[in-house]
Amino acid sequence: MTSLEQTLAAIRPADPQAVADARAHQDRLTKPRGALGVLEEVAVRLAGAAAASPPPIPAPAALAIFAADHGVHAQGVTPWPQEVTQQMVANFLAGGAVANAFAAQVGASVTVVDVGVAADLPPARGLVVDKVAYGTADLSRGPAMTGRQVVAALEAGIAVAGRLVGQGARCLVTGDMGIANTTASAALICAFTGHDAAEATGRGTGVDDETLARKVEIVRRALRVNGLADPAPGMTVAEALRRLAAVGGLEHAAIAGFILGAASLRVPVILDGVIAGSAALAAAALAPDAVDHCVAGHRSAEPGHALALAHLGLRPLVELELRLGEGTGGLLAHPLVCAAVRVMHEVATFDSAGVSEKEA
Ligand SMILES: O=C(O)c1ccc[n+]([C@@H]2O[C@H](COP(=O)([O-])O)[C@@H](O)[C@H]2O)c1
Ligand SMILES: Cc1cc2nc[nH]c2cc1C
């Protein structure tokens, strides 16, 4: 079996007994029932994912920023030059990006993975080079990736998840860097949810009205050229791979692999913004149970992100109108996820603390 096949075969859904135990435990803690709102659901979710109640504290966290370039950049879908991808990789490695500041704030390690940057990068500490191609082909003219490339990028992500967990990470956070990747994200969201290009496409780094209209047209053309009519429910693995290869980026495929790798190891993965959300749709089409191991860190300002999260049934923890990527929104959610789980370990029960219960 290939590493992708092995990973898909190893993914299990949430454990129902751990979910039931975690719910019952929440209700015995010294707080009114449900008083921790969404955080109670997060703790229960992590219990199901870990098949243990209480689940392990999800720390330390490790952020992986998957970087790649996009052939569709040639269609004028972003005002930023393609070199910004490699320049920002250098910035991450030097510790100068927002993701580095947020990672320091929450005690997360940062790994940068070149899965498809359109240039050779000098070796550096913290850089993993697993380059599948020098960027994708233009998704508006045909498939962005070959079948071989999409599997190689998925397996690059699986390998990174396995290495980080092997080094002691107990929570993974997705990150991305790729100029023009919000166009590929919108196309993936349409390809996996059936939403229209105009609903799923947004302003990315902040494009003007004219560029936004062009982006919508490019996404629509990509779906037509690649034969991506409405996705049928219960899509085969082969069709999910075809759709991901047709309009995804190398970083989307690697992030999908990273999610699948985390799920196969029963380690929770916090999703960042629209790039992660669209990659998670591909991961869910390949292995629906993988979603049980995901937490939506935040909801980005990109309109397709809400559509992706709704399709996945995930509720974002943080909503701050972020639209940066890099893993920034996922990192901000990490302390909330830890706090939700810590409650299960440390808060007294009505019995243990001698606190009277609500009168009937
Ligand atoms: O994470 C998000 O939701 C998000 C929303 C808008 C932009 N980005 C980042 O901006 C870059 C892509 O934007 P664009 O306009 O070039 O498609 C890429 O590096 C992403 O990490 C990220
Ligand atoms: C400067 C810059 C930083 C980024 N980080 C993630 N995407 C980005 C896009 C740009 C343009």
From TrEMBL:
Keywords annotated in UniProt: Cobalamin biosynthesis, Glycosyltransferase, Transferase
Entry annotated with the keyword Glycosyltransferase: yes
Record-linked Pfam families: DBI_PRT
Active-site residue list: E326 (proton acceptor)
Signal peptide: none
Keyword ATP-binding listed: no
The reaction(s) this protein catalyses: 5,6-dimethylbenzimidazole + nicotinate beta-D-ribonucleotide = alpha-ribazole 5'-phosphate + nicotinate + H(+)
Pathway assignment: Nucleoside biosynthesis; alpha-ribazole biosynthesis; alpha-ribazole from 5,6-dimethylbenzimidazole: step 1/2
EC identifiers of the protein: 2.4.2.21
Function: Catalyzes the synthesis of alpha-ribazole-5'-phosphate from nicotinate mononucleotide (NAMN) and 5,6-dimethylbenzimidazole (DMB).
Family matches, as NCBIfam families: cobT_DBIPRT, PRK00105.1
Family: Belongs to the CobT family.
PANTHER family (UniProt xref): NICOTINATE-NUCLEOTIDE--DIMETHYLBENZIMIDAZOLE PHOSPHORIBOSYLTRANSFERASE
Protein name per the record: Nicotinate-nucleotide--dimethylbenzimidazole phosphoribosyltransferase
The species this protein was found in: Planomonospora alba
Gene name as annotated: cobT
